[in-house]
Write a structure and sequence with these properties.
The complex is a heterodimer of chains A (about 325) and B (about 160).
Chain A: H1 7-17, H2 23-30, H3 35-44, H4 56-78, H5 86-104, H6 122-130, H7 142-155, H8 158-180, H9 183-206, H10 211-217, H11 226-235, H12 237-244, H13 251-258, H14 260-275, H15 286-310, H16 315-321
Helix pairs in contact in A: 4-15, 5-6, 5-7, 5-8, 7-8, 8-9, 9-11, 9-14, 10-11, 11-12, 13-14, 15-16
Chain B: H1 2-38, H2 43-51, H3 55-70, H4 84-121, H5 126-153
Helix pairs in contact in B: 1-2, 1-3, 1-4, 2-4, 3-4, 3-5, 4-5
The chains are: A mainly alpha (about 325), B mainly alpha (about 160).
Amino acid sequence: MSDNQYYYAVARIRSKELSLLDQVFIDQLLGARNIDEALRLLQDKGWHMPDEYTTESERVEKMLAAEKKKTWDLIGELVDDMSVFDVLLTENDYHNLKAAVKEALTSVKHPNIFVEGGTIDPKVMKEAVASRDFGPLPDEMEPVAEKALETLLHTHDGQLTDVIIDKAALSAINDAGKRSGSPVLELYAELKVASADIKTAVRAVKTGKDKNFIKDALAPCKTLNTDKLADAAGEGMEAIYDYLSLTEYSDAVSELKKSPSAFERWCDNLIIRNIRSEITHPYTIGPLAAYIIARENEISTVRIVLSGLINDLPEASVRERAREMYV
Amino acid sequence: MGIALALLGAASAALFAGIGSAIGVGRAGQAAAGLVTEDPSQFSRALILQLLPGTQGIYGLLIAFIALSNIGLLGGQVDTGMSVGTGLMYLFACLPMAFVGLVSAMQQSKASVASIGLVAKRPDQFGKSMIFPAMVETYAILALLISILAINGIPR
């Protein structure tokens, strides 16, 4: 899509960026004495407050879902062809595929395991998997759904099924990034895949997986050599540190040594730091994509902070998990 | 033939500079509409920034007027016997405004769009935001000056 089509949209996004949460506000939120005070702060910032709810967690989830919807409604107003943002939604599709496959083979139904906001209606996904008629699914998802269902049916190995779907999800994200024609979305996809590969390698070391399993689980990307990463994961954590220190993800080593949550935070911050330059682009689709990513990031951070308050977690532990803000 | 070339020069100045301004004002107008959608109080600031790429069209019109006046087309005393050399002189005299007008208006609109983004985020910086697109104006003014000097220097 031509960059010339985003003059209006980017100017609106520039105004909207003023209402994004900044680091000062997150510190204020972290300092809230209780959930009511935190919610009041968010309400003052224009965040939606649900009227009806049964528990505090439900109230928070409803608020976050409304904020997410607000973002996508705005983008829907600004962009005619939303397929350019598939890269940001594909993850939800594959999450729903995972849920649909597991639900198809168990008698217990979990209506809340499906997430909204993918490119495919969760109902369509559920029906396609349950009826083994994968036609309504996108072409690249059909063989994945079939393979995952067969694997779970014959091996009853939920982890192996997850690996198949997760790898396919990462490849789909990478492909959607390339298809978008936007450097920022392509970069987002690359960083998403690379950080997921590092997470997979680390988890494989901790659960004692063999090298071949790891090689199968890693999705190819430009900035990491997945064969070398799998070899390193086969040897242990030190080998992973050695390999990563030779790549552009060398910062990850110190975070991995700190704690898993520090590494999770680093992964999200990596994306935010890399898209921050979009603040200065005047008319490409980049600022729109960066705004969506920034909103998703602030929604994740607010969820972490509010969950911490609901569950009485120490502020230091919540602060460690809180993400860096875009503005 | 001479008069046709002179007319081509005058038309080019109005045509190309006008096209550049139309594209530029349209482009900046989209950004201005985006800003005003979110913050209607920024209308006057956005309008000024939108209009900046419009000046090239006016300069082109001015050059076309001067050229048409000099060749007698406005006063009804057309020099139908104008030599090809003189006609070419008018044509070349109008070209700086035609081409610089086209390119500078399009480039200035990009600076205007960026400045509208600046005003969206920092309305208090409006004065500075005007300077960036105004810098591009310099080159349109230089071209205008050269075209005027050249047209007036053509012996009649």
